[in-house]
């Protein structure tokens, strides 16, 4: 997955990155690999839960209609729900606005043994807030530092942080918006306000580029994943998940008793 990973010091130009890659695979091949990844992730998740010494935080960001909900469903939905939680961050409440911008986020960080998925995240405070000018430029600048330090703190506490931007084009977004209007069962997903945000596409793209460049680190890397070929998007994210869990190398804990003292045939 190195070609999708953004390295520290790398210049990011989203306009130059593919949004509809398929990795040279067929759809059937992709689905078979996704199935294998899902089985491997389930095993690793169980080990992570049993070990109880590490945690994984998976952050999704995207333009509107980028596929955050769908990716979460397809990649994390098949895992044991006892070991996975999802948090979404919408407009801050009055109480949340009276605290620093990371206050509500830190409270959602996963405890050891669990995987947490952020569907939108603390990055909204350097994306939409930057685009609309809801905070002064010097405040936004300091927030990049705060985010890096926050994620470094999580890493020091044995929480692995992985951040994924689901990358789509402006034309693809329009197609998805139209689909939501054409299908009655998708009307609930359409927000007229998204059309206003769409007018700011270039501003958002630049905000993403700056945020990713400023906050990708070895401990908390960013990946820019092409998201228009949805089966391939799911495969790539699942591979990042498996690769990350394997690097974490969770282990089943040693038993607190001698199994030889309890032959299976001797217990009743």
From TrEMBL:
Protein keywords: Kinase, Transferase
Region listing for Disordered, in residue ranges: 1-29
SUPFAM superfamilies: P-loop containing nucleoside triphosphate hydrolases
Sequence ranges assigned to domain Polyphosphate kinase-2-related in this UniProt record: 25-251
Lineage of origin: Bacteria, Pseudomonadati, Rhodothermota, Rhodothermia, Rhodothermales
Protein name, entry field: Polyphosphate kinase 2 family protein
Pfam families for this protein: PPK2
GO molecular function: kinase activity
Top-level division of the source organism's lineage: Bacteria
UniProt cross-references to Gene3D superfamilies, sorted A to Z: P-loop containing nucleotide triphosphate hydrolases
Keyword presence, Metal-binding: no
Family membership noted in the UniProt record: Belongs to the polyphosphate kinase 2 (PPK2) family. Class I subfamily.
